[in-house]
């Protein structure tokens, strides 16, 4: 069963706001307005109100201090508290039962389908415990069925809307971080990824940055038209994606005819990769302009740089040397200047 929490910040705020409202509400209505009730009952309600208030404050200010399992468990804890308060007050009327909406909406908004279904079942069971204990059988049955159906339909609608919003958000995120022509990542996504990747790089986990330029791309556009130029760019992007042995690499189009690849590889692993790239690019014989020629520069962290900016400068310098040396070549950054 998945207990992955959707939108942890939103979930923490939802818990905090409810608890901060429920604590004082229970204290006022269950204790201060019922001071003639038996002391044990008042003490229990007062302690419960205080605990709820503290949890609300922690959720608001320091949600990271709460256990990971607290967030999927909180709707069940809420149901237990609501049911306990309804039993303690012997109140099976509709008003108190409406508090079950909060754990239901929380689960449908932030948890998966299985946990949401379990929450609906728990709400149904909690209401049945109160309804059948404090109202007559026929009325209790009708009330229990109505609450169960209403809660189930509410969960289905809210969960469906949330899933639809998730799909729309994924589409928008993909559009915001990918190049529409080639399907590669765009500059924005690349800039965000290279910083994280270089931070993780080390002697046992080297990171190669491969910079690629399509040689004489303007000539392709001027001679064969922009449609053929677009085909050439797509062919290069496809070759960059397909050449890696590890699908964890990232291919990005930085603009125009310039591409970049982040690859988990040492220097010689990066050279093997670009050999595969060249093989695949040379196979693009269906283009009117023929297979495009490419120049490549390679730099590896931590061999040639320890930061993202230095790594890009090293790879750019290697690419410049490849183009200066006649194009259609590959150059490695660093003293060795390996070529392929």
UniProtKB/TrEMBL annotation:
Protein name: GGDEF domain-containing protein
Membrane-spanning intervals of the chain: 14-35, 42-62, 68-88, 100-124, 144-161
Domain GGDEF: 205-335
Taxonomic lineage from the root: Bacteria, Bacillati, Actinomycetota, Actinomycetes, Micromonosporales
Keywords: Membrane, Transmembrane, Transmembrane helix
Alphabetical list of Gene3D superfamilies matching this protein: 3.30.70.270
Keyword Hydrolase assigned: no
Cleaved signal peptide residues: none
């Amino acid at each position: 069963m998945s207990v992955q929490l959707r939108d942890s910040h939103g979930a923490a705020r939802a818990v905090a706001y409810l608890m901060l409202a429920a604590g004082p509400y229970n204290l006022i209505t269950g204790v201060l307005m019922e001071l003639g009730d038996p002391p044990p009952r008042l003490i229990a309600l007062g302690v419960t109100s205080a605990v709820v208030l503290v949890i609300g404050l922690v959720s608001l200010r320091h949600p990271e201090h709460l256990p990971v399992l607290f967030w999927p468990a909180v709707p069940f804890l809420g149901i237990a508290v609501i049911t306990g308060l309804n039993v303690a007050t012997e109140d099976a009327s509709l008003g108190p039962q409406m508090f079950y909406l909060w754990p239901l909406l929380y689960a449908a908004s932030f948890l998966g389908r299985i946990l949401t279904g379990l929450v609906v079942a728990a709400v149904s069971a909690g209401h049945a415990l109160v309804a059948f204990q404090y109202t007559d059988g026929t009325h209790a049955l009708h009330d229990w069925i109505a609450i169960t159906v209403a809660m189930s339909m509410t969960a289905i609608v809210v969960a469906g809307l949330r899933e639809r919003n998730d799909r729309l958000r994924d589409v928008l995120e993909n559009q915001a971080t990918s190049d529409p022509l080639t399907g590669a990542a765009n500059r924005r996504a690349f800039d965000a990824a290279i910083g994280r990747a270089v931070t993780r790089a080390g002697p046992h986990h080297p990171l190669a940055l491969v910079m690629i330029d399509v040689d004489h791309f303007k000539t392709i556009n001027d001679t064969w038209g922009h449609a053929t130029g677009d085909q050439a760019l797509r062919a290069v992007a496809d070759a960059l994606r397909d050449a890696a042995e590890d699908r964890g690499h990232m291919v990005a189009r930085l603009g125009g005819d310039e591409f970049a690849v982040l690859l988990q590889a040492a220097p010689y692993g990066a050279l093997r990769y670009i050999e595969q790239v060249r093989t695949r690019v040379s196979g693009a014989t269906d283009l009117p302009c023929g297979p495009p020629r490419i120049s490549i520069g390679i730099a590896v962290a931590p061999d040639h740089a320890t930061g993202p900016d230095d790594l890009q400068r090293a790879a750019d310098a290697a690419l410049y040397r490849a183009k200066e040396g006649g194009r259609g070549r590959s150059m490695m950054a660093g003293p060795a200047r390996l070529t392929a």
